[in-house]
Amino acid sequence: MSVASPSPLAWQPLDLTQAAHRDEAWAVSKQACAAPRPGARAFNLAWRLGTAEDWTSLRIFVLKRDSAPLGLAVFSRRRRPLKFLLGEITLAQVELTRYWHLGDPYLDASLAEEAAPQLCASLLEVAMNSLSSRECLFLEGLPTGGPLHESLKLTRCRGVAPLQLGLGNDFEHQFIRMPQSLADYLAQMGGRSRQSVQYSQRKLVKDMQGDVRCDCFDTEESIDRFVADAQAISRKTYQWNLLGLGLRDGDALRASLRFTAQRGWMRSFILYCKQVPVAFMLGDQQENCYYYDDVGYDPAYAKSSVGSVLQLMVLEFLFARADRPAWFDFSTGYGEHKGRFGNFSRHETNLLVMPATLGNRTLVGAHRLNDRASRFAVDLLARAGVKDRLKQLIRRRSARKSEPQPSRSESE
Question: pLDDT, tens digit, for every residue of 117-165?
Fold first, then answer.
């Protein structure tokens, strides 16, 4: 008696204009979010849709065998410029439509691990073939050596290997695997790091005559105070004054926080010294993971290590809660602060993946040339021993722009 072979696996795009396909997307999203791993919010459609609830901004692909869903990939459409930089200074930029994917796609645990790269290659081929020449995929926080990264060697778009453009350096994505208690976590830290952060906390409390507190903002009623105090900090940072970043759009931030608060996700924090806001952390908790999205501190308090003190006090708060997360995700990008507190990491990269058109080849070539020139200039400054001093000078001057200027009568 012959046994029928299993049906082939195939990625199917969902038509999100149809209610039935949206319902299917929600169902597979819940399945993916329940997977016990950090980064699962990438599959949370409520989070991906955000306050706009614009289904046209998403492209969703479901891996199926017959009608059974066994995989999920979610891409969000975003208009983001490709910047040409000299160090931290933007020289030029080209607008791009990116379809943003975060991490690896969800694949059901029943699938053979060795089949994952080929399954991801077929995903990329379906996704790439749906792009116009002016569009690209943005693979953010892509684990190197993971199935999606490995699949790039196998992928073809209209018969040709797509172009790949790395954005920034590869990095170690830091996490905290949260043990049962704060004491257990601190015992896992290196002795020097543990002593340093605890000393910084004690010294700050002493310098402020005990008037140091960390407030958690997790309700709709707390949003206005968080935005006002966090923006007051953000305006003083070099990211705001030099890079045009920071918490600049208060209305959008309020809407985003209201959205997360209504779903019980909002967990943002501000550190106060003598009632003055000096550092903030913007984040949320979904399922078993806390996601750290943005931080900032008043540079006037840099020597007091207020960023590290805030981090430690946030962990004290999270460990004390009944819904203590299993993971703390420091988000993409590496920083010394993240490395000090993290106890688990994975190597990641950020990539643009584009159709191999003549225009895209020219754009990628120009960007790579600019990147090499920028690195060469930065290396020259480093070898001359002035890179760090120049960076500090630029940041100090940018921070001074945020300080109130005296009136004519005050300065005379």
Answer: 999 999 999 999 989 888 999 999 999 999 999 999 998 877 789 999 9
One domain, residues 120 and 20 = yes
The parts of the chain modelled with pLDDT lower than 50 are 1-4, 402, 404-412
Q: Sort 136 into a burial class: Cβ within 10 Å, 0-12 / 13-18 / 19+.
A: buried
Report residue 136 as tokens: 């690209």
CATH code, 289: 3.40.630.30
Q: CB atoms < 10 A from the CB of 389, how many?
A: 11
Q: Which residue in 314, 341, 325 sits closest to 289, CA to CA?
A: 325
Single-letter code of the amino acid located at 13: P
Whether residues 32 and 112 share a domain: the answer is: yes
Range of the domain at 112: 10-173+348-354
Q: Where are the alpha helices (DSSP H) in 111-220?
A: 116-129, 147-151, 182-188, 191-207
Q: What is the pLDDT of residue 408?
A: 34
CA angle, residues 225, 226, 231, in degrees to nearest 5: 105
DSSP track, 316-381? HHHHHSTT--SEEE--SS--HHHHHH-SEEEEEEEEEEE---HHHHHHHHHHHHHHHHHHHHHHHH
The tally of domains found in the chain comes to 2
**Which pTM does this prediction carry?**
0.86
d(CA 130, CA 393): 47
